[in-house]
Design a protein that fits this description.
Elements (H helix, E strand, L loop, with lengths): L1 H28 L5 E7 L11 E8 L4 E8 L6 H7 L3 E8 H10 L4 E6 L3 H16 L4 E2 L7 H17 L3 H8 L5 H6 L7 H9 L10 H4 L3 H10 L3 E4 L21 H12 L7 H21 L9 H6 L4 H10 L7 H34 L1
Antiparallel strand pairs: 1-2, 1-5, 2-3, 3-4, 4-6, 5-7
Length: 369
């Protein structure tokens, strides 16, 4: 019996050693030169690129692999309409780094690659997780509020941060990105001073102003880089930097004719007692009111909900909307938006006064006859 037990233990030991040897040989066959990069791209001149872009680059020189995992969408037919009203899909796609780099360089946009200080196991697991996301295809609706490029990148990077920092991850986020709402994070990159910023901040309301968890605040590409820097994960800046600036400035940059200047001019025009001004102001008011009403009920873009501009533009409820805007100046609405709304309201009061005056004159003439 003792001999039989000894033989069984010997066979078991040989089997375990064989499995360990096989596992070690498989492990040693994996490449050890696997590197991960956080790619930061400067803002562009289209609606979807106005906030910049982020991606993750994975490279293995010994295997000749070098890809950027980036969010892609189908081609926009009408970008502004599709972003606000469309039901487009998007997903993670691997693109050769050289092609990725050339595409943004042709657009005149800066591209910076930060190498992440990951262990070989962390880099391999990150690559595997990104491949799994790619396999899901176009699995998200175009949703720049809840699953933008930065948020998709950090879906996996947060696992690495949690493994290293534990419960301290959220406190680090609060220290680096000290915001409570996503609008505050967006305003740092795209404020109301440009026309695109003025328009987008007017359209997006509701969910964009709700306080969210620290991890949902990391939505801007540059905030993601700052967080990785504070966590000690950015160890080197690669040479993917465009030294020259674009020959033409962005169409969304603030110009001398800013939204604030336009709103002041519009308010002055609305105060002028000329009937001809009504032919421009009131059709514009109706169009804008219907537009914001359509956004509230029919828009599919995340971050668009009930908007108090709809109340402020409707003549009967305008005072309530204006008071609400005054109470939220700076955190939701800008002075430009307020002045435009006040201009419409003044013109409405002028119309009511003129109609009453006309009615009184007609009544007086009728009585005199």
């Amino acid at each position: 019996m003792f001999r039989l037990l000894t033989i069984l233990l010997l066979c078991l030991s040989i089997t375990v050693r064989a499995q360990e040897s096989e596992s070690d040989s498989v492990e040693s066959s994996f490449p050890t030169d696997v590197y991960a990069y956080y790619m930061l791209i400067s803002p562009g001149e289209t609606v979807s690129s106005a906030l910049g872009h982020a991606a993750i680059r994975m490279a293995c020189p010994s295997a000749g692999l070098d890809y950027c995992f980036t969010i892609k969408t189908p081609e926009f037919k009408d970008e502004l309409f599709d972003v606000l009203f469309g039901r487009l899909r998007m997903g993670l796609v691997p693109e050769e780094t050289s092609m990725f780099y050339d595409d943004y360089m042709k657009q005149g946009r800066d591209v910076v690659a930060y190498r992440l200080g990951l262990t070989i196991d962390e880099a391999r697991n990150l690559w595997k997780a990104l491949d799994n996301q790619v396999a899901r295809g176009l699995c998200w609706e175009v949703n720049y509020v809840n699953n933008g490029c930065t948020q998709v990148c950090f879906e996996n990077l947060f696992e690495i941060l949690d493994a290293r920092m534990g419960n301290r991850t959220d406190s680090l986020i609060r220290a680096v990105v000290p915001f409570q709402t996503r609008r505050q994070a967006v305003e740092k990159t795209l404020g109301h001073s440009s026309w695109l910023g003025f328009f987008l901040h007017s359209c997006y309301a509701g969910p964009l102003d709700e306080p969210v968890s620290p991890r949902q605040i990391v939505a801007m590409p540059e905030d993601g880089a700052a967080l990785l820097q504070a966590a000690g994960l950015l160890v080197e800046k690669e040479g993917f930097v465009k030294d020259r600036k674009p020959e033409t400035s962005s169409a969304w940059d603030a110009t001398w004719f800013t939204p604030l200047m336009a709103s002041v001019l519009f308010l002055l025009i609305c105060c002028m007692p000329f009937r001809q001004i009504d032919y421009v102001v009131f059709p514009l008011q109706v169009v804008l009111w219907l537009f914001f009403l359509a956004l509230s009920f029919f828009a599919h873009s995340a971050g668009i909900g009930f908007n108090w501009l709809t109340i402020a533009l409707f003549p009967l409820t305008a005072p309530v909307g204006i008071i609400y805007m005054l109470c939220h100046m700076g955190d939701i609405y800008s002075l430009s938006q307020l002045l435009f709304v006040v201009g419409f309201f003044i013109r409405t009061l002028y119309l009511i006064k003129r109609k009453r005056l006309l009615t009184n004159i007609l009544t007086f003439k009728t009585k005199s006859k």
